[in-house]
Specification:
The protein is α+β, with helices and mostly antiparallel strands. It has one domain: Aminopeptidase (3-Layer(aba) Sandwich). It contains seven helices and eight strands, in the order ββαααββααβαβαββ. The protein has an eight-stranded mixed beta sheet with strand order 1-2-3-4-5-6-8-7, with helices on both faces. It is globular, with a radius of gyration of 19 Å.
Length: 223
């Protein structure tokens, strides 16, 4: 899938009065590339606390990425897209699992045994127990929305890109990739306290699903 972005061509006059043309590069969306993982982990951390910076919230900052972004690009790199800035950084991403139940079983049997054991459970704070417990218990059978909405996604942007339409464009890329694979529907789950995200998903055409306290799930048909 081709990346999307903008190239601006401007004209200016030199000190001698001659017209000169120059190119202004701006951010663009491209597919995930191996080597993007550290940047994705940083973005995940800086947006994990209800959309805000989660640095220091847990005893080990790497927990967030090892649950919520890195397994996705390991398992489904073809359903992952990033916003690359004009200075070469990655400042946003969207990742997806086309088959949530299959992904959760892979997470349970392969990914988490290899990555989760290094995180200490004894002495963990209540928030750490909550996050690690979610990962420890994850399985295909526990995926509430997967029957009707088989795929799911995560999207995160650094503050510098928020409010500029990049989230919408990233989700459009993911939806196009899922449709190409014949996926009929997808869902996502946001924290209920992230009011801006809830309005954003409403405006994109997602509809709200029955949800657990503290969270809000959304679904969308793709067929």
């Amino acid at each position: 899938m081709s990346s999307c972005g903008v190239e601006l061509w401007c004209r200016r006059r030199s000190r001698l009065g001659a017209a000169a043309q120059y190119r202004v590069a701006v951010s663009r969306i491209r597919p995930f590339h191996p080597g993007d993982e550290p940047a994705l982990a940083e973005i995940c951390l800086r947006t994990a606390d209800g959309g805000g910076d989660a640095t220091g919230v847990l005893g080990d900052d790497t927990i967030w990425a090892d649950i919520f972004v890195l397994p996705y690009v390991a398992r489904h790199p073809d359903a992952a897209f990033v916003v690359a800035t004009d200075d070469g950084r990655v400042a946003g991403y969207a990742v997806a699992a086309p088959d949530t139940r299959a992904f959760a079983e892979w997470f349970r049997t392969e990914w988490w045994p290899a990555h989760g054991a290094r995180f200490a459970r004894p002495g963990a704070t209540a928030r750490e127990r909550e996050i690690l417990g979610y990962a420890d218990r994850r399985s295909g059978a526990g995926e509430t929305y997967a029957e009707e909405y088989p795929a799911h996604l995560h999207v995160d942007l650094l503050p510098e890109l928020q409010g500029q339409g990049w989230g919408r464009r990233l989700i459009a890329e993911v939806i196009a990739a899922l449709r190409a694979q014949g996926v009929p529907a997808l869902h996502l789950v946001a924290t209920a306290e992230n009011a801006g995200a809830l309005v954003f998903y409403d405006r994109l055409g997602f509809h709200r699903l029955p949800s657990e306290p503290g969270s809000q799930a959304f679904g969308m048909r793709l067929d």
